């Protein structure tokens, strides 16, 4: 899956790039081309801008009215220079956006920029039309709604009465038929029952007579119960496969799988601390400040990301943080008992164990579940087989000593005390 | 092994009382009634077999059902915005200071969990005293106020502020005094905020008064040198120390810093160089300092002055009248004077008295000895105690005259700790508006009109200057737990200054402290202190009229002389009572008497016999017209005809843990010559009733086996192996077991008996680090204290036939005055052939390849065989689920104090054994850090909690497989022996013989 999607992604990227190049080559005339503008806009602008919404940068709708084309070209090419030069309009925007300068696009030609402006204007017009349309329709609907609804209700009522009448007649006919044929039906039923009873009884009698068979069956039953019981007992408190419902439908498959975000980006604790730690909501906001997944929700904010915004009290329209954050209450999936000490950094940083070794194919999980049993046997088995990462200078003195004991043999965690009680229980 | 000395922990053991023999038969005080249940009567009466089976059946069913439940839901709630410096699971350290000592506060996920000394600090830098280690618990004290109060009702800060400002304005308009009564304030910031208030309200004055007054020393120094200060003492430079009733290793001035310096001349490194100081102590009650002295002479409190006069005469050859007539003391003084005179420039005399004349005489003696400069430093003087009894008297008089409009009490609780509480109450009644900054409605605060609860030092910005030139920072490590506000901020608000306290502290440092040091604010936040003083003081010469001083001493001594004399003292643990609600400190046994959770009247056993008192008796102590009933402790070493009582107990409004613990002895003090005196004439008589103290001295007794090795310095110089009595030196040992290889690390410890003073801060540090529960007085009485580390205190009496002929002259065994003491820290010895391991039926305790004896709590099911089989008696059993049992809520088990728990250590459940783990979480943490940094583990990377708290450096821990490690070197010392080595359990903790620098004939 991952491969296919990434291949597709790459393909799409190369196609779009070549399309842009194609347009750039073919369109030599001064006529502003909305199509080229669209391609350029998607390639360069969408990270920070939307037509109708303020994102990282301002909403672009109406920019041609606010500023002259000349000014816009110069701004897009190098806004910082304009700010430095003290252009009043430029300084105003710069101040408004917390002195975050817009990326300079010196590689775009004036014509290309004009194409983008044309595209924006075009889109703006489309949006305006769209906004106007439903408004008109809505007005019409609301005036006609009452009549339409009344007519509809009356029609349904008449239809229902018709159905009731027809069904009544059918019932009556069927009852008549039943009364006429009652005796025949009774006879048939009695016959059938007698036949079935005798067959069951016969089988039971035959089975009970065969003592060996009974004994065997009982034995098998006991054995079955024992096996089931034994297995159940061993799995008391083992929650392998545990997959609770989380307050936010966070998908590792999208983040770690499709987008290939490194584990460390969110779970940095795993590399330096005993806790892998769930990332704080501000880490999510690093990306979700702009990533709203609105393409999948018809231009609306994803409801799951909306939960994140609620948690950090972020208003996507004003792009401001409120003062009432509410931490996300995730449900813990991996629960070690209090008496077992586990340190992530020992395993991840020192031993170099992959996250997937214990957490499974996390990059394919839509919802995370407990992949490993987390039993002591599971820990111990791994300690018995895993070789110590002997590159670490800490082990120099240990390995020296061990080599005196066992020449040439591999050294596992178990051999340097990895199975001792006090390594995990204190 | 060769010693024929008899060591005993208490008189019960010495006399082999029936109760002692009975209670030492078993490991546990109260046997489980197994026999009762199993015999026939038991079956038909109390717990019939059928009931038992019913219960068993029900239990099985219940457990089966309980096991069917689904995965419990645990919530994981991450930060919304994670503070940059916090990584869950990794501790942060902040430089701060407590009582002027620069410390490092360890926090986890934003909450302080322990305090250690700042290793780079000036002065005390290798340990902390017990109150400092325990102070982290006070942050989470649930008995504190959660809001400001007016008239006992919670109010908003705004309301309090307006009320206070109105009162201040009223007082100012009426021209009345505004007085801030505090204990010693040496914080530059606090003083600056008081000055800010005084700028707005010019009638403001600041009065300092300490519960334990050192006014005598200050006044004496004013008279002798024109400098009204308490000097700093550098015992590291003293080869001969004579102390007259000064508990200078414990509660006297900077006891912990003195310990660090004093031990430098007595520990194994000093002995290795053939050097050891000599310490002679004259005192009435056996103090912790006295228990460490080489020679200790029991005198009465009224004889203190006479002893000093005699000492002065001996040193100078003068014959001033009033020298002591006590024969024992005279002999000792002659010897001591000779020693002192021989060691001029490296000798010092200290006195615990608060009498101006006595201290003036001490100044004269020290001038003769040339102690000013290297040992007594008047330039970089101590600023810890600046209280003036006279100033407080003055305040009371002004208040009674109705001239005080507003009185603020800052860290001051005179209704509890002033000897005449009635006088204070009468004065306060005449003050228009009174307010306390106490963090709880204590004895004084609850009598006042308003309380503005102050934050603790862990929640505040601030600073301290415990010594001239030394400035330490206080920085917050957590937001205030309750709705409290630090004093300085309150004073600023009332002075109309809106500066935040952080800015105020920073600006104050940048303007007044940092210039000239080449450091900036951020450097201070990291280092924690700045020192602008000099390394040593200059020489001073006291200007004292010895004759008139001596005659005044003689006159004043008569006032306290009597058939029975009372001596009030500040206990090493409880101090002046301000920490009384700290459960760790209440349960820490007194270094000498080993009593927990009470104060008592210490009386010589022979004297008690005269009074008709026995064990568990009670006495009435009467002095200065006041009397209290106290339980009796038969204290060997106590002077005949004296009674000692600790201060700091008997709080009534301190909190759930500390209320009504012991009796308040402050009312027995008196005012003589303008300073508060703690000695008095007294009457002692038997009171009705009995009282059993929770005394740990005979708990966990090692059956009279010979486990202490002691020698004298003279013998040591001849043969460093002297008296070490190593079994292996004279016997061949055989092993039943195969040798267990320890190719990686081998963790071992060395304990220097000569360095250990018995102070007990290691015990508290261990409690805090390892989540050890506090069990309370009743459980201690049942011998169920949970301390993993205890300090055994052994007494000996020099019996006939010893070589100390001079000592024999002053020794009179018959009156129990002449005992010597050895303190021995005892903890799990991590035996290579551990007897506990072989008897555990479930392998819950097993040996590791690093030489540790592991204890897996989750395997243990509580047979307690291990504890029965441990020759060192260091295993502790959880009789209750201390962390989930409302009976223990007042100590540690409540929603606030549980926040002090170390998250790296499991809390143990009921029915489980526990013992010293050698701070395995620290070992594992240190190893992991080395692995992450891709390097070998260095010596000193891993420090035990007890070791880090020990300012005497008596505990040395490390890797025996590293021949260059500190501990390997220490264990190669000739003095090293192993306790109970002869039973071949091969302990991993080596002890070094106690060396006593006694007078030789």
Describe what is shown at a glance.
Chain A contains 18 helices and three strands. In chain A, a hairpin with a 4-residue loop joins β1 (314-315) and β2 (320-321). Helix content of chain A is 60%, strand content 1%.
CATH second-level architecture of the largest domain in chain B: 2-Layer Sandwich
**CATH T-level topology of the domain at 2-127 in chain A:** Cytochrome Bc1 Complex, Chain D, domain 2
User: What is the first-to-last residue Cα distance of chain A?
Assistant: 44 Å
Structural class of chain B: alpha/beta
Name given to the CATH homologous superfamily of the domain at 2-127 in chain A: Cytochrome c-like domain
* Apparent shape of chain B: globular
Number of strands of chain A: 3
| Largest interface by Cβ-Cβ < 8 Å | A-B, 58 and 50 residues
Strand fraction of chain B equals 15-25%
Unreliable residue runs of chain A? 20-30, 135-145
Residues in helix, % of chain A? 55-70%
CATH architecture of the domain at 2-127 in chain A: Orthogonal Bundle
The main sheet of chain B comes to: 7 strands, mixed
Q: Give, in spatial order, the strands making up the sheet with the most strands of chain B.
A: 6-5-17-16-15-7-8
Q: Which consecutive residue ranges of chain B, at least 5 long each, have pLDDT under 50?
A: 799-812
Give average pLDDT of chain B, whole number.
89
Radius of gyration of chain B: 29 Å
What is the count of β-strands of chain B?
43
At the fold tier of CATH, the topology name of the largest domain in chain B is Alpha-Beta Plaits
Strand order of the largest sheet of chain A: 1-2
Shape of chain A: flat
């Amino acid at each position: 899956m991952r491969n296919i999607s990434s291949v597709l992604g790459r393909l799409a990227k190369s196609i779009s790039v070549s399309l842009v190049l194609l347009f750039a080559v073919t369109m030599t005339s001064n006529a502003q081309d909305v199509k080229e503008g669209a391609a350029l806009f998607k390639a360069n602008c969408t990270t920070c801008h939307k037509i109708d919404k303020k994102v990282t940068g301002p909403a672009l709708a109406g920019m041609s009215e606010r500023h002259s084309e000349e000014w816009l070209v110069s701004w897009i090419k190098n806004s910082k220079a304009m700010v430095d030069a003290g252009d009043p309009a430029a300084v105003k925007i710069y101040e408004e956006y917390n002195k975050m300068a817009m990326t300079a696009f010196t590689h775009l030609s004036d014509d290309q920029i004009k194409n983008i402006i044309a595209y924006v204007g075009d889109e703006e017009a489309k949006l305006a039309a769209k906004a106007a349309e439903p408004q008109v329709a809505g007005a019409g609907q609301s005036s006609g709604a009452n009549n339409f609804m009344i007519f509809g209700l009356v029609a349904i009522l008449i239809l229902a009465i018709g159905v009731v009448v027809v069904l009544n007649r059918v019932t009556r006919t069927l009852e008549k038929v039943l009364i006429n044929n009652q005796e025949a039906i009774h006879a048939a039923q009695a016959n059938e029952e007698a036949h079935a009873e005798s067959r069951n009884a016969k089988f039971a009698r035959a089975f009970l007579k065969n003592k060996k068979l009974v004994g065997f069956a009982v034995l098998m039953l006991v054995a079955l119960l024992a096996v089931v019981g034994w297995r159940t007992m061993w799995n008391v408190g083992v929650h392998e496969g545990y997959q609770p419902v989380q307050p936010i439908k966070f998908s590792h498959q999208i983040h770690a799988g499709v987008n290939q975000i490194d584990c460390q980006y969110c779970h940095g604790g795993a590399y330096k601390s005993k806790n892998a730690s769930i990332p704080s909501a501000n880490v999510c906001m690093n990306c979700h400040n702009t990533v709203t997944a609105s393409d999948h929700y018809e231009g609306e904010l994803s409801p799951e990301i909306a939960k994140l915004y609620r948690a950090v009290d972020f208003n996507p329209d004003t792009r401001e943080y409120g003062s009432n954050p509410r931490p996300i209450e995730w449900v813990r999936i991996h629960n070690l008992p209090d008496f077992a000490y586990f340190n992530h950094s020992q395993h991840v940083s020192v031993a170099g164990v992959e996250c997937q070794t214990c957490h499974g194919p996390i990059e394919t999980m839509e919802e995370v579940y407990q992949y490993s049993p987390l039993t002591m046997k599971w820990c111990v088995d791994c300690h018995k087989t895993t070789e110590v990462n002997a590159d670490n200078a800490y082990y120099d003195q240990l390995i020296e000593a061990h080599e005196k004991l066992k020449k040439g043999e591999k050294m596992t965690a178990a051999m340097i005390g990895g199975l001792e009680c006090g390594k995990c229980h204190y | 092994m060769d010693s024929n000395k008899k060591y005993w922990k208490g008189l019960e053991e010495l006399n082999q009382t029936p109760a002692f023999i009975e209670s030492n038969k078993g490991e546990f005080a109260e046997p489980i009634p197994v026999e009762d249940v199993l015999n026939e009567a038991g079956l038909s009466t109390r717990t019939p077999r059928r009931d038992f089976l019913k219960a068993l059946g029900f239990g099985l069913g219940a457990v089966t059902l309980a096991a069917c439940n689904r995965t419990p839901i645990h919530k994981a709630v991450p930060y919304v915005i994670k503070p940059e410096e916090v990584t869950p699971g990794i501790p942060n350290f902040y430089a701060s200071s407590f009582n002027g000592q620069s410390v490092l506060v360890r926090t986890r996920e934003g909450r302080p969990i322990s305090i250690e000394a700042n290793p780079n600090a000036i002065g005390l830098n290798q340990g902390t005293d017990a109150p400092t280690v325990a102070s982290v618990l006070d942050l989470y004290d649930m008995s504190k106020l959660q809001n400001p109060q007016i008239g006992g009702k919670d109010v908003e800060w705004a309301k309090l502020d307006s009320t206070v400002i109105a009162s201040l304005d009223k007082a100012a308009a009426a021209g009345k005094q505004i007085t801030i009564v505090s204990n010693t304030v040496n914080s530059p910031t606090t003083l600056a905020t008081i000055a800010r208030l005084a700028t707005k309200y010019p009638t403001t004055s600041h009065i300092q008064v300490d519960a334990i007054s050192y006014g005598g020393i200050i006044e004496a120094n004013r008279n002798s040198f024109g400098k009204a200060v308490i000097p700093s003492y550098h015992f590291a430079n003293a080869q001969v120390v004579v102390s007259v009733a000064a508990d200078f290793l414990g509660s006297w001035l900077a006891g912990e810093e003195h310990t660090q310096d004093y031990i430098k001349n007595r520990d194994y490194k000093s002995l290795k160089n053939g050097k050891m100081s000599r310490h002679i102590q004259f005192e009435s009650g056996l103090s912790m300092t006295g228990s460490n002295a080489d020679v200790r002479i029991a005198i009465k409190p009224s004889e203190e002055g006479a002893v000093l006069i005699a000492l002065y005469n001996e040193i100078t050859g003068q014959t001033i009248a009033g020298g002591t007539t006590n024969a024992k003391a005279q002999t000792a003084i002659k010897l001591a004077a000779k020693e002192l005179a021989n060691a001029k420039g490296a000798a010092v005399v200290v006195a615990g008295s608060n009498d101006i004349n006595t201290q003036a005489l001490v100044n004269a003696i020290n001038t003769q000895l040339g102690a000013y400069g290297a040992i007594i430093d008047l330039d970089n003087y101590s600023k810890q105690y600046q209280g003036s009894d006279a100033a407080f008297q003055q305040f009371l008089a002004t208040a009674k005259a109705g001239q005080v409009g507003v009185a603020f009490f800052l860290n001051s609780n005179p209704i509890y700790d002033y000897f005449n509480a009635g006088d204070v109450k009468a004065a306060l009644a005449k003050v228009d508006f009174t307010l306390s900054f106490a963090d709880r409605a204590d004895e004084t605060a609850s009598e006042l009109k308003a309380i503005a609860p102050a934050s603790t030092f862990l929640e505040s910005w601030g600073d301290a200057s415990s010594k001239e030139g030394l400035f330490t920072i206080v920085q917050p490590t957590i937001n205030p737990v309750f709705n409290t506000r630090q004093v300085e901020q309150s004073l600023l608000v009332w002075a109309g200054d809106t500066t935040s306290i952080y800015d105020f502290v920073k600006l104050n440092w940048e303007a007044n402290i940092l210039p000239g040091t080449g450091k900036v604010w951020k450097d201070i936040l990291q280092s924690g202190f700045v020192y602008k003083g000099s390394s040593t003081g200059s020489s001073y010469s006291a200007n004292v009229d010895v004759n008139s001083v001596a005659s005044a001493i003689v006159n004043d001594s008569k006032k306290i002389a009597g058939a029975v004399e009372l001596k009030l003292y500040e206990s090493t643990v409880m101090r002046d009572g301000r920490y009384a609600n700290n459960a760790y400190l209440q349960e820490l046994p007194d270094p000498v008497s080993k009593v927990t959770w009470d104060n008592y009247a210490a009386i010589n056993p022979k004297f008690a016999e005269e009074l008709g008192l026995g064990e568990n008796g009670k006495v009435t102590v009467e002095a200065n017209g006041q009397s209290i009933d106290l339980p009796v402790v038969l204290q060997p070493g106590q002077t005949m005809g004296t009674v000692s009582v600790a201060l700091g107990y008997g709080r009534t409004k301190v909190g759930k843990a500390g209320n009504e613990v012991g009796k308040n002895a402050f009312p027995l003090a008196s005012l003589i010559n303008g300073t508060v005196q703690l000695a008095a004439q007294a009457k002692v008589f038997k009171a009705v009733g009995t009282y059993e103290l929770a005394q740990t001295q005979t708990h966990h007794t090692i059956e009279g086996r010979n486990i202490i090795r002691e020698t004298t310095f003279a013998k040591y110089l001849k043969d460093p192996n002297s008296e070490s009595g190593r079994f292996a030196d004279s016997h061949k040992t055989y092993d039943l077991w195969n040798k267990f290889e320890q190719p990686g690390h081998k963790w071992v410890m060395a304990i220097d008996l000569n360095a250990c003073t018995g102070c007990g801060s290691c015990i508290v540090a261990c409690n805090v680090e390892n989540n050890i529960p506090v069990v309370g007085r009743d459980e201690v009485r049942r011998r169920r204290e949970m301390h993993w580390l205890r300090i055994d205190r052994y007494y000996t009496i020099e019996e006939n036939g010893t070589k100390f002929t001079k000592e024999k002259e002053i020794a009179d065994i018959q009156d129990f005055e002449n005992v010597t003491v050895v303190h021995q820290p005892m903890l799990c010895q991590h035996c290579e052939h551990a007897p506990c391991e072989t008897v555990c039926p479930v392998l819950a305790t097993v040996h590791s390849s690093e030489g540790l004896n592991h204890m897996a709590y989750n395997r243990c099911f509580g047979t307690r065989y291990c504890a029965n089989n441990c020759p060192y008696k260091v295993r502790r059993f959880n009789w209750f689920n201390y962390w989930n049992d409302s009976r223990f809520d007042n100590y540690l088990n409540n929603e606030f104090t549980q926040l002090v728990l170390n998250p790296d250590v499991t809390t143990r459940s009921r029915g489980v054994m526990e013992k010293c783990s050698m701070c395995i979480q620290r070992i594992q943490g240190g190893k992991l850090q080395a692995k992450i940094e891709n390097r070998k583990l260095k010596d000193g990377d891993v420090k035990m909690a007890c070791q880090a708290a020990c300012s005497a450096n008596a505990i040395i821990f490390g890797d025996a497989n590293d021949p260059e490690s500190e501990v390997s070197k220490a264990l190669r010392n000739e003095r090293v022996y192993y306790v109970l080595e002869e039973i071949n359990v091969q302990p991993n903790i080596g002890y070094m013989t106690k060396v006593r620098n006694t007078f030789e004939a």
